[in-house]
Design a protein that fits this description.
Elements: E1 20-24, H1 28-38, E2 43-48, H2 51-61, E3 65-68, H3 77-87, E4 92-97, H4 102-109, E5 115-118, H5 122-135
Parallel strand pairs: 1-2, 1-3, 3-4, 4-5
């Protein structure tokens, strides 16, 4: 770690703001793994375990991107996204799911534009999916 007392050409530069990510999954191991995967590149603002908590956290924290599972207790990720998108249209969404079936993908698309990443390929694709949805106009 560099001392702030010393002067260098980089001292005056501000650190770029990391995109703020809210994670939602009812599997705590998945949450921990995704957090570990993303935390170097993004600011993880919270991790929640059901759709109701996701809605509450979204309104409170106003993240840039929400990464959510589809199947969660109390309220599905799709229903949570539907409620959030109605009031906070600037938030981007990525569904991180084990559901590869076309029916799930179509249902996810019914709530508006979003990324769709299978949990089995999260290590290779999730970070890029976040960058992709951030690059799209709201």
């Amino acid at each position: 770690m560099r001392s702030r007392r010393g002067s260098s050409q980089h001292d005056g530069l501000k650190k770029m703001k990391q995109p703020r990510i809210l994670l939602a999954d009812d599997d705590l191991h998945v949450l921990a793994s995704v957090n570990k995967l993303l935390r170097e590149e993004f600011e993880i603002v919270d991790m929640v375990s059901n759709g109701h908590l996701l809605v509450e956290a979204a309104f409170k924290l106003r993240p840039d991107v929400i990464v959510t599972d589809i199947s969660m207790p109390i309220m599905s990720g799709i229903e949570a996204v539907r409620r959030i998108r109605g009031s906070l249209p600037g938030i981007r969404f990525i569904f991180l799911t084990m559901h590869a079936a076309t029916a799930y993908r179509k249902e996810a698309q019914s709530v508006g534009p979003a990324g769709y990443v299978l949990k089995s390929s999260a290590r290779e694709e999730l970070s890029q999916a976040i960058h992709d949805v951030l690059a799209c106009p709201t």
